[in-house]
């Protein structure tokens, strides 16, 4: 069945032709008032050139999201099955165990859809009206592709509000345990799905954790904003002399303790339920030092309005972190703030070094892992920034 046709304003097709999947509402000539949120449309330039098939939400600033560069493509169960299978084939090649981000939205040509895999349990996030309306087809496609034991719909992301969608969390199929075990970099870890943060675990740091563990070998290490301890526990397993893991959540600290026991490293692990800033200040004031400091905070910059405040938060955090690093020690520091570009993050860390009267050598930069693929024309998808630093 042919889609409705949406025509862009003159010269507004350039970003789409370059491969970017978003079209903003002020770039569209055609009125979208008669289209329902989640409708599928074929997009044309002002000269009539077909730009592709897109999902549409007239109520969103990002009004169109391309999912195919051909016209009149449907998003039915068969299409979801084809695209999820293609995403799976990549992950199956990359990872020995079935624990990964199976679908990463625009990066896997399914804009607005995120799926994480925990063995045969799957967690779905629908960020757009189009994916929300097709939840049934997505679930059916998963059941056709995998021996699914359970599916959790975890539509709790703030971004849903931009599409005028409610937040919710519910079991959509089968049995979903409250906590699950997974394997990352050969290390067993336990995390909480029901009631846990986001989709339950942060697979995006997989490669950064492996790299950080090398810098922690034989050293006294601290893992800040530790959540379930994925950085610090992997460091302990790989030979860190001692690891202190700090998180403000008592529930997260309980999971860290479980993960230390699972990996038989409890004798080299200390778990602290405390605010990371307060703990760093106390360590600084008491003269405590660490050979390796691991910093992975939540996003401090939620929108462009609080950019200045968020940058100051990163600067203060990294200054405190450097004040507790031993001479010739290591700092692994990250930002997952979508609005902070890599250059700004690097400048902020450098400013923190000046504040702390320390010198840095940048040993490397990290990004999200290959189960979070990005598009060359879409810098917005490359959100995770990690710096591996030697602190002098």
Overview of this structure, please?
With 392 residues, the protein is an alpha/beta fold. It folds into three domains: 4-68, Archaeosine Trna-guanine Transglycosylase, Chain: A, domain 4; 77-176, RNA methyltransferase domain (HRMD) like (Transcription Regulator spoIIAA, 2-Layer Sandwich), CATH 3.30.750; 181-391, Rossmann fold. It has ten helices and 19 strands. It has helices spanning 14-18, 77-94, 129-133, 135-145, 206-216, 230-237, 250-262, 276-286, 307-323, 342-356, and strands at residues 4-7, 22-24, 39-44, 50-56, 62-68, 99-104, 113-118, 121-126, 150-155, 168-174, 179-184, 187-192, 220-224, 242-247, 269-273, 290-295, 325-335, 360-366, 385-391. The strands form four sheets. The protein has a seven-stranded mixed β-sheet, with helices on both faces. The chain has a five-stranded mixed β-sheet with strand order 1-3-4-5-2. Helix 7 links the parallel strand 14 and strand 15 (269-273). Helix 2 (77-94) crosses helix 4, helix 5 crosses helix 6 (230-237) and helix 8 packs parallel to helix 9. The protein is globular, with a radius of gyration of 22 Å. The mean pLDDT is 97.
């Amino acid at each position: 069945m042919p889609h409705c046709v949406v025509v862009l304003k003159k010269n507004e097709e350039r970003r789409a032709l370059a491969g970017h999947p978003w079209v903003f509402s002020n770039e569209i000539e055609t009125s979208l008032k008669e289209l329902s949120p989640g409708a599928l449309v074929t997009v044309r330039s002002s000269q009539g050139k077909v730009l592709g098939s897109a999902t549409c939400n007239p109520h969103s600033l990002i009004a169109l999201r391309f999912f195919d560069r051909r016209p009149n493509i449907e998003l039915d169960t068969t299409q979801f099955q084809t695209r999820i299978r293609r995403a799976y084939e990549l992950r199956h090649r990359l990872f020995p165990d079935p624990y990964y981000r199976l679908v990463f939205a625009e990066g896997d040509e399914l804009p607005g859809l995120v799926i994480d895999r925990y063995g045969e349990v799957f967690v779905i996030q629908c960020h757009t009206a189009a994916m929300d309306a097709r939840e049934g087809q997505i679930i059916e496609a998963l059941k056709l592709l995998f021996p699914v034991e359970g599916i959790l719909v975890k539509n709790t992301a703030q971004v849903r509000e931009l599409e005028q969608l409610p937040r919710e969390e519910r079991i959509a199929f089968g049995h979903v345990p409250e906590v699950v075990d997974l394997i990352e970099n050969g290390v067993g870890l336990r995390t909480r799905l029901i009631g846990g943060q986001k989709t339950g675990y942060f697979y995006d740091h997989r490669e950064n954790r492996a790299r950080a563990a090398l810098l922690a070998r034989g050293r006294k290490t601290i893992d800040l904003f530790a959540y379930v301890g994925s950085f610090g526990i992997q460091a302990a397993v790989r030979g860190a002399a001692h690891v202190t893991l700090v998180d403000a959540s008592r529930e997260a600290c309980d999971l860290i303790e479980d993960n230390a026991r699972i990996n038989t490293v409890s004798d080299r692990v200390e778990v602290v339920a405390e605010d990371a800033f307060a703990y760093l200040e106390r360590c600084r004031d008491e003269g405590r030092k660490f050979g390796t400091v691991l910093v992975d905070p939540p996003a401090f910059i939620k929108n462009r309005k609080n950019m200045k405040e968020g940058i100051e938060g990163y600067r203060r955090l990294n200054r405190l972190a450097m004040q507790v690093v031993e001479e010739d020690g290591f700092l692994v520091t990250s930002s997952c703030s979508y609005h902070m570009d890599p250059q700004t993050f690097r400048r902020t860390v450098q400013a923190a070094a000046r504040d702390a009267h320390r010198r840095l050598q940048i040993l490397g930069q990290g990004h999200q892992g290959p189960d979070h693929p990005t598009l060359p024309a879409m810098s917005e998808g490359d959100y995770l920034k990690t710096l591996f630093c030697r602190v002098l």
